[in-house]
Write a structure and sequence with these properties.
This protein has 213 residues and is of the alpha+beta class. It is built from 5 helices and 10 strands; from the N terminus they run E-E-H-E-H-E-H-E-E-E-E-H-H-E-E. A hairpin with a 4-residue loop joins strand 6 and strand 7.
C-alpha cells in the first residue's frame, strides 16, 4: 500500500481539484496506478461524512477526473457509480446555514443535489444513504476493472479536510442557497466556482494496489 501526505499542495480553484489530487498522489498520470489496458467497470465511494456542499463538490470533481483520464483513451463506457453515505438528522440549527461549508439540512436535499451534479457531469450515479451504525469509519473510493482487479483510495479525513479558501469566505461566492431546485444546486456543485484550501497539519491518502493483477 502506498501513502501520500497532503496539506496545502492542492489549494486553488475548486474546478480542477481532482486533476491536482491525482497529480499529487501519482505524479500526474492516473494510469501509473494500474496495468495498461485496464478498463473500469464500476466506481463506488463510501463516506459517512458527506455533510456539506463543498465535500460533495470535491467528490464530483475527483470522479470527473477519473472519467476524463479513461475517456481520453476510449476506455470509459457505461460505468455505474454509487455513493454510499450517512443519513442527515434533519432540523438541526446552524449559524452558517446557506454557505458552502454549512451542513446540508436534509438527507433528500443533499442526495438529490449530488445526483444532479453527477448527471450534469455526464455520470449518472446512485446515492445510497444508511444510518451511521451501518457504515464503516473509513472513507474509500474503489474502482473495479474488467480484469477482476480493483484500486482502492483510502482518505484519512475524506473531502471534509478541505475548506473554502479564506479569500472567498466573506464574499458572495461563499453563499450556497440550499432551498434552490436540485438541478440548480447540482450545477453549482459540478461547476464548483470557488477556491479551496487545506491545512498546515497534513491528511493522509492511502493507495491500495494489492488486488490488481
Amino acid at each position: 500500500m502506498l501513502s501520500c501526505a497532503i496539506s496545502n499542495e492542492l489549494d486553488g480553484k475548486g474546478a480542477g481539484f481532482g486533476q491536482r489530487f491525482f497529480s499529487q498522489i501519482c505524479g500526474g498520470d492516473l494510469f501509473t496506478l494500474f496495468p495498461k489496458g485496464a478498463i473500469p467497470t464500476a466506481l463506488e465511494y463510501e463516506d459517512r461524512y458527506l455533510a456539506t456542499p463543498i465535500a460533495c463538490a470535491l467528490l464530483v470533481d475527483v470522479v470527473s477526473a477519473v472519467k476524463a483520464q479513461f475517456q481520453a483513451r476510449g476506455d470509459w463506457g457505461d460505468v455505474p457509480i454509487q455513493v454510499t453515505t450517512m443519513t442527515i438528522e434533519g432540523g438541526k440549527q446552524s449559524r452558517s446555514r446557506g454557505t458552502w461549508w454549512s451542513d446540508w439540512e436534509f438527507t433528500d436535499q443533499r442526495d438529490m443535489a449530488l445526483k444532479a451534479a453527477f448527471d450534469y457531469s455526464g455520470m449518472p450515479a446512485s446515492i445510497v444513504t444508511k444510518e451511521k451504525r451501518f457504515l464503516g469509519h473509513g472513507r474509500r473510493l474503489t474502482l473495479w476493472f474488467a480484469s477482476g482487479g480493483k484500486l482502492c483510495l483510502w482518505l484519512d479525513q475524506g473531502w471534509s479536510y478541505w475548506a473554502v479558501a479564506k479569500l472567498h469566505r466573506q464574499t458572495p461566492l461563499a453563499a450556497f442557497d440550499m432551498r434552490l431546485p436540485a438541478t440548480v444546486l447540482g450545477e453549482a456543485l459540478a461547476e464548483f466556482r470557488i477556491d479551496v484550501q487545506g491545512h498546515e497539519l497534513p491528511t493522509q491518502v492511502f493507495v491500495d494496489l494489492r488486488e490488481l493483477p
